[in-house]
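User
Take a look at the entry that follows and flag anything odd:
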Amino acid sequence: MTTRYALYVIPEDGTALARLGEDWLSTLPADLTAEARVYGFHATLKAPFRLAPGQTEEQLRAACATLASQSAAIDEAPPVLARLHGFYALRPGQDSAAIQALAAEAVRRLDSFRAALNAGELAKRLAAPLSPRQRDLLEHWGYPYVFDEYRFHMTLTRRLDEAEAPMAEALLRPLVAEAEAEPLRIASICLMRQHDGSVFTLLQRFTLEGSCASSV
């Protein structure tokens, strides 16, 4: 059995983003969301990885708890609907140094838990058109979109061609309107687990308890 873990931001209960997450899959046509359905409505902080030899799930939980205890909640401007590399997602309305810092810290602190990419995983990553910088990040950190290449986003569709995009956007605009009117708040991080390619499920939500609040 292959088990993978990831660190996500999942919307806080009671927020417009959480309501969007509840309605998203049932509102959009299944063929637009098939891949995103496996990962759920989220933003990635640490991309999926297998545990390195000698590391345990409990140790990973403890590391996530420590990260959360030393990281502050983040408040940002409302998110906006954007098209990124062909797929639609919600993104922060403006660049956020606080979000970038949280994601970078997650990558660094959890890297010792990450098993090296196997041949299949590496081939999948290299199949994408990567810049020299992204290839370097892939080699050293197991994922090409970290640090200066990281973009916080919450995926809503698969990659769409130019003929499909207008229809998808027309469906999405009313769906995301409430979320686009509410400030983005990140108050917790979520450790996720996946078995054998099934959907990712929540293992534990960790409240961000750092004393230095971040706000842009």
Remarks:
- The chain has seven helices and ten strands.
- Helices lie at 16-27, 30-39, 57-69, 97-110, 119-126, 132-141, 165-180.
- The mean pLDDT is 94.
- The CA atoms of residues 25 and 177 lie 16 Å apart.
